[in-house]
């Protein structure tokens, strides 16, 4: 199993898809990296040579912020918003949608699937036997 940036990428998938298992790399960036290095995106990750794996690893480490560094940067940015008292920072602190989505409906995943009305999510009443 090839290991890139501290992540074991699946070897039974195409290289283009396998690279997306690294935090900070999506499909477009994955395609861009493979095009720059001249590696066919449709090959399986298990078919990569050691040299190609090392080339991918070096290119990603030099040119992109991924995994722990990226997570740390995002955490610092959110902390900065909270410290200065920005609206977005307060929304992050309360665990609510930050980017202007409606909250009357459609934000259950952010709130932790909270159901506030009487009938929603209740078990059906017991039937008489």
CATH topological fold name of the largest domain: Helicase, Ruva Protein, domain 3
Distance between the termini: 58 Å
- Give average pLDDT, whole number: 87
Beta fraction of the residues? Answer: under 5%
Would you state the CATH class of the largest domain? Mainly Alpha
Number of distinct beta strands: 2
Which class best fits the helix and strand makeup?
Answer: mainly alpha
Give an account of the 3D structure.
The protein is mostly helical. It folds into 2 domains: 3-64, Helicase, Ruva Protein, domain 3; 68-100, no CATH class. The protein contains 6 helices and 2 strands, in the order E-E-H-H-H-H-H-H. Strands 1-2 form a two-stranded antiparallel ribbon. A hairpin with a 2-residue loop joins strand 1 and strand 2 (7-8). The model has no long low-confidence stretch (mean pLDDT 87).
